[in-house]
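Per reviewer request, we include the raw input and output of the structure prediction for the construct analysed in the revised manuscript.
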Amino acid sequence: MLPKVIIHNSVSLDGSLTDFKPNMELHYQIAGKYTPAVHLIGSNTVKVGAELYGEGVPPEEAKDFEKPKRDESLPYWVIPDTKGALEGLLHTSRRFEFCKDVVVLVSEQTPKKYIEHLKERNYSYHVLGKKHVDLEKALELLSAKYGAKKVLADTGRVLGNLLLNQGLASEVSLLIHPIIVGNKSYNIFSNVGEDVSLKLDNAEILGKGYVWLVYTVSK
């Protein structure tokens, strides 16, 4: 059985994911309300975040080669990365104190060098798909192996749009920020291929001008 998949994003009033400063405290406050077993995050989202890490990406240390021992109630961060884009960057995610550990999803065409990189650092990884990760199989695995009943896709446009296009998303959660980005807009849903019908379940005004909208995806 597939888990419930919630797409959660912070966007501008005109639907942009970039070119504004998101309220990350409020963003993660909402994310925590879902208590997901898994955060599904795109590799590009992680890469951008890691490269903004303080004054740059910190070097790996001995502890980065070991699985962290953290509260079992914390979520896994599950990252599809078929091209090995996060080689040398994954430790920035593993160090995050509210992450149980990182799990990587790869394909049959993922470079062997990257697989060795994951093995050396004791990352759990799963081969799902020939060229790209088969997202439906990935969700089945997360349910069966990791006991995931809820998966929060806290990610950018690419992965979120794939989940919508493949009919795998159950809910859309948007934290609307009081800003219009305009012609620089990187629209959250611009790669969705067909109309997606939604039912509004919740609308809340939060803080100074923020609005939290929750929609159920009509199957």
